[in-house]
Amino acid sequence: MAQVPEISIDQSQFLPESGSPGEQSSVPAAPGEVSAIRAFLSSRGNSAIADLSFHWLMVLCALSIFGIVVLIAFELVVRSRLAWNSFGLDFFYRAFVDTYTNQPMYWDPVNGHFSALPFLYGTLVSSFLALLLAVPLAIGVAVFLTEMSPGYLRAPLAFITELLAAIPSVIYGLWAVFVLVPLLREHVNPWLIKLLGWTGFFGDDNPTGLGFVSAGVILAIMILPIISSLTREVMTAVPTSQREAVLALGATRWEMIRMGVLRNARIGIVGAVILGLGRALGETMAVTMVIGNSPEIRRSLLANGSTMASVIANEFAEASSDLHLSALMELGLALFIVTIIVNAFARLLVWAVTRGEPSAAR
Amino acid sequence: MKTELKFRAKFLERKRAFTDGAATFLAVLSTVLVVAPLVAIFAYLVYKGASSLNLDFFTQIPKPVGESGGGMANAIAGSAILLAVGSLIGVPIGIAGGIFLAEFGRGTKLANAVRFTADVLNGVPSIVMGIAVYSLIVVPQGHFSAFSGGVALGIMMIPTVCRTTEEMLLMVPNAVREAALALGVPNWRSVLAITVKTASPGIITGCMLAFARVAGETAPLIFTAFGNVDWSGKLNEPIAALPLQIYVYAISPYDEWHRLAWGGALVLIVLIVLAVSLVRYVTSRGVLKGAS
Q1: Complex ipTM, two decimals?
Q2: Are B148 and B251 within one domain?
Q3: Chain B nearest-CA residue for A361
Q4: What is the CATH number assigned to the segment(s) A119-320+336-354?
Q5: Which residues, including other chains, have CB under 8 Å from residue A81's CB and lie 6 or more apart?
Q6: What is the pLDDT of residues B3-30, one digit of tens each?
Q7: CATH number of the domain where residue B189 is located
Q8: In this complex, do B250 and A170 lie within 8 Å of one another by their Cβ atoms?
Q9: Which residue of A86, A279, A329, B99 has the lowest C-beta tally within 10 Å?
Q10: Chain B, nearest residue to A77 by Cα
C-alpha cells in the first residue's frame, strides 16, 4: 500500500529569479548518460520484458499459420518425389495401353503404371456439374432472401441455409447412398437417358445409379450454402442509393435487382462461385460414396468415375507399393496447389467488392 | 400510328410485368428447392436413426458381423478424445493468432497476409491435411495413433479460431483498452485480462464453431486415427471416431451396420445443430452483453 508522499512545495520556484525545481520531480536532476536497456526498461514501467515476450509469442502463433502451409507443402513434395522422378510431367496426361484389351489404361497399381488423367477428368466434370446445378439456385435464394422475402422469413431461412453448411460431409454421403441414388436410379436417370441419350452423354450401361450425375447433385447441395451466403453478403454491400436510383427511373422490382444490385455485385458473385468451385474440387467423403470409384474415362455422365480426392480416400490406406503411395501423394499435392490457387483468387475477388472487411465466410 | 405506339407501349408494360412475376416465381422456387433437401435429410435421419438409438447404442462397442445389437460407444468416446487433443492444439494457437491480428498487428501488411492465408487454409481439402499429417507423424512413428488424429483436427481448427477471435476482439471498444492502459496496467495483462475477457463469450462461440466443423470431419482421420473396433485407452493407439465409423458402416454391405450408421449420424447431427444454434443465439445477443 503506497504511502502518500510528503508534498512540500518550495514557493520560491514560482518566483522568476530562483530556479530550483520542486521536491517531487521524477526526472533525475542530472540527466547524464542513460543506457539503452535502462531507457527501455523504464519506458514500460515494470513489465517491459513481459510485454515483449507476450508480443513475440503472439507473433509466433500468427506465423504458425504460414508454418502450417509450408509444412503441408513440404511433406507432400518430399513424399511425391518418387512418383515425380518416375513419371515427370506426363503423370497428368499420359495414357498407358492395357495389353489384354488394347484399351487405354490409366491407373494400374499392379504393373506400376500411374496416370492422373481420369481423376482430373472426374474432378472437373463433377465440380462443373455441381456448379451448373448450384449457381442458379444459390443466386435465386440469395435474391429472394435479400430483396424479396418478408422480414419474418429472413432470419429462419438464413439459419436454415447456414445449417446446410454445417452438416458433415459423411452424413450427406450417407443420405445420398440410401436416398438420393435410388431416387435418381429409379426416377430420374431413365428420363435422362430417354430424353438426352441422343447426345451421347447419357449412356444406359450403368444401372447402379452411382456416377457423375449423383456426385454432381450431392456436391451441388453441399456448395449451395457457401455460394448463397457470400452472394447475400456482396448484395447487401451494394449501396441503397443504387437501388433507389434504378427505382426512380421507373423499373420493376426484378429490373431493379438486375440493373441495380446484380450488376454492381457481379464481381463478388463470380468470387462466390469460384469459392464454391474450390469447395467442390476438394470434397471427399460424399463424393467417394456415390461416384462409383472406377479409374476410367467414359463419355457418359451416368458412368462410374473417380475424383482426385476420392481415389486418395479409397486407396491410400491400402497402397500396395511405394510408387503407389507416392503417386497418391502427388495427386494430393496437385489438389493442394489447385485449391490454394482457386481459393486465393476467389477471396481476392470477394475482398475487392466488400472492400476488405474481415469476414469469416461460414 | 398512334395506336401502334400505344399497343407497343402496352405490350412492353405487360412483358416487363411478366418478367418481374417470373423472376419472383423462380426465386421462390429456388428457395423451396434449397430448403427441401435439408428438411428431407433431417426427416430421414430422425426416421431412420431414432429406431436404433437405445441404451445399448451409447454403452456397447460394435458386435461381430451377424450378431444383432451392439453400439457405437467407443466411437463416441473416441471422437471426444480426438476433439480434446485437437482443441488443446488448435484453440490456444488460434486465439493467440487472433490476438496478434487484432491487438498488435492491426493494419500491418503481416496481419493482412496472415488473415489471407488463414482464409485460404480454410479452403484446403481436409484429406490433404490428413495425408500431410500421415507423412509427418504416422510414418516416423510407424503406427496410427489418436495423437496424429488429434493433431490433424487441431491444425484444421487454427484458421477458424484465429479469424473469429480477431473479429470478436475488434468489437471491443477502444475505450476499454485505453482505460486499462491509463491505469498503468501492463500491455500483456490488459490484453489478456481485460480485452480478451470482455470478448470471451464471442471467442468461446468461435471455438464452438470450429469444434462443430471439425467434429464431423472424416477424411483426415482415415489415415491418422484409422479407427478401432474396441475401446482405446492410450494416445498411441488407433482410435475409433464417430464420423469415421459412420463412413465405414455406410459403405459396408450389412444391414445391421447400416442401422448403426443411421443412429450415429443422428447423434452427430444433433450435436452439431445444438452447437450451431448456440453459436447463433450467443452472437445475436451481442458480444458485450454477457461480458463478465
Answers
A1: 0.89
A2: yes
A3: B119
A4: 1.10.3720.10
A5: A326
A6: 888 888 888 889 999 999 999 999 999 9
A7: 1.10.3720.10
A8: yes
A9: A86
A10: B132
